Input
Amino acid sequence: MSNIATIQEADVHGAHETHHEHHHHETFISKYVFSQDHKMIARQFLITGMIWAIIGGLFSVLFRLQLGYPNSTFPWLEDLLGQWAKGGKLQPEFYYALVTMHGTILVFFVLTAGLSGTFANFLIPLQIGARDMASPMLNMLSYWFFFLASIIMFSSLFVQTGPASGGWTIYPPLSALGDASSGSKIGMDLWLVSMAMFIVSSLLGGLNYISTILNMRTKGMSMTRLPLTIWALFFTAVLGVLSFPVLLSGAILLLFDRNLGTSFFLSDIVVNGKILPNEGGSAILFQHLFWFLGHPEVYIILLPAMGMSSEILSVNSRKPIFGYMAMVGSLFAIAILAFLVWAHHMFVTGLNPLLGAFFVLLTLLIAVPSAIKVFNWLTTLWRANIRFTPAMLFAIGFVSFFISGGLTGIFLGNSALDIHLHDTYFVVAHFHIVMGVASFMGMFAGVYHWFPKMYGRFLNNTLAYIHFWITIVGAYLIFWPMHYEGLAGMPRRYYDFSMWESFKMFTGLNEFISFVSMIVFAAQLLFVFNFFYSIFKGRKVTTQNPWGANTLEWTTPIRPGHGNWPGEIPEVHRGAYDYGKDGREFIPQTEPVGEHESHH
Amino acid sequence: MSTVVMEQRKRIHPHKFTLWVGVASIVMMFAGLTSAYIVKRNQANWVTFDLPVMFWYSTVVIVISSFTLYLSNKAFRQREMAKYRGLVVATLLLGIIFVIMQVVGFNLLWLKGITLTKNVSFSFLYVILGLHALHVIGGVVALVVLFAKAFSSKVRNYNIVPLEVISTYWHFVDALWIYLLIFLLLIR
Ligand code: HEM
Ligand SMILES: [Cu+2]
Output
């Protein structure tokens, strides 16, 4: 790197004096381990997230084995899991632990840290034109807190009494009383401590993302010229910064209840025939604290996928995104509403019906901005000259799943229906489709689209297409039938349905779902292989802007160094979506507006 | 292709801005706790009690500490380094005294039978005020680190940003205490 770059950097980043010194003499440790370069931190988040995704995914395959083949035994399971699969059959306690860990890992470690951590870190400085984050130091700490949280959560898998097993929502009393179940013991404490670390990590990350977006944009990058990816990551960070602390307060109270004998969430409880001394607490109180985070959390997971899909849909449609301001406005509306609907998870807790009606109204209001977004995505695609790159396919898949899952949200949002559907497989189908699969689609779209910028090579396309088709078809085959099971009353979180006459009719279906889930899991391993293979052996990127995109990250060198632009940071003259304008395929944001240019 | 950009846009220093966002997030945590408190208060088994006078004294101490920190900022800007150091040390000590007084206050309550586990209203008091005291300790640690750095580096560093960031945080924690005190007095 030239001297000018260094001076520039010092100049721009007067905020952190140590920053420019350290890229002169980078050691292995400072480059790959304790890196403060946002791009390296992004890759750390991505790879850690992928490891968690494999573990979390594997868990689901294991417990689907129990649901699909409840009367079979698998001797190899006992070899693998020992006491947890005595006689080749998952023990009920361990089944619950697997479900709990699956949810926790996928929701928090993969789709929160893995998704936001990767793309907010990678894209914010590159797309707004900054050399790095507002505070690279806090950014690095954010990763290491996540790492610490990961280590603690991982170690909880190996304790004698097993990991937490009360569900990813850790409702008391199961989570508050050590004697309630084996997963309520040390596993639960480790869960809480790990989540506290995780929350610190999210907060440090979120603080940084917000202040970087608001304060460090390059010249000409007004807020209304920001790519939608950045807008989405911005609202995601705001949601996180305002809702995670509330979960933290809930977790702290829970730790007190567990270990110091307080009764925030406990009252009149009998365990093993003994009445506990705790009184005056309320388990419902915990649900309020949890869902005050929990509902924003589902949008923390979803918004980055929305933003990236918007960007990728526009780039590959070679058309401007339809209704840019409406897209920003609807993100804003969703972010506000996300804080006002939490009690729709609590319609059956004895909530005052009048209050419930307000929550129904506010919940159904979310359908409005959601519909605006869907309309705009579809109109962007309408009559476009679409390039079906793997990223594009996944972005379209995102839209598809968002529609399918959003529709069932409208069912659930009506309290009268929800009283029947709550805690059934209908809910499982709803949130897996709208949150789980949709966000994974968005995340894969992002990885396929930005991999060339991350590693200077392309992913293999053939493997990518196989990955896409198995995933989209498989995910629908897995989750669509669950709606029927839920409507028929099949409850979620049960270990074995074969004991009930009324669910006998689903025996074949459950087996089918389990079978497909194994295939889909295998397809994800194909992706993992493609990912690591392509880092070293993929086709090299030879042009600066392989997708013909307008945003700033494609004006950096093919493999940008620390500081991103070797010379000055480019100035921005237009929004990010001038595609197919005045007969030109694309016009980068750095190009000044021509005299005779049309407006649209 | 692109025009030269010499300076990025920076209206407010990013570190200060980051702190403000952090403050918002701490506010949310205490908002969570205090709303839980309000919800519980309306239920059975809620016992009210008087706060020890000690908490009034500690209020005075933390307010004074904000004032000394404010003066130290002023001294720093005027490069009166000796005065600045004295005032920071005073602030530090006041911060520590505040925490000690809180602990003494807890002790007085405990002796009166207001213990952690006896009633939910007691538990809330200890958790909320304890978390606040932890935030004060965080401020003390930050000041110590800042101070240690100033002494250890050979180069004179006249960058005021770190001091201002810590000061903002300190005043926030001070204001938070006053809010909590009023909250506990009014809502019981
Ligand atoms: C029109 C939009 C939506 C509406 C009206 C809606 C409504 C609901 C309702 C009422 C429930 C509670 C069901 C029950 O437990 O009985 C629910 C559950 C859930 N929703 Fe949605 N939802 C919508 C969109 C979303 C989105 C976009 C996401 C995530 C990205 C999401 C994620 C979830 C999750 C994770 C749960 C279940 C949590 C659990 O109990 O474990 N929903 N939804
Ligand atoms: Cu919700």
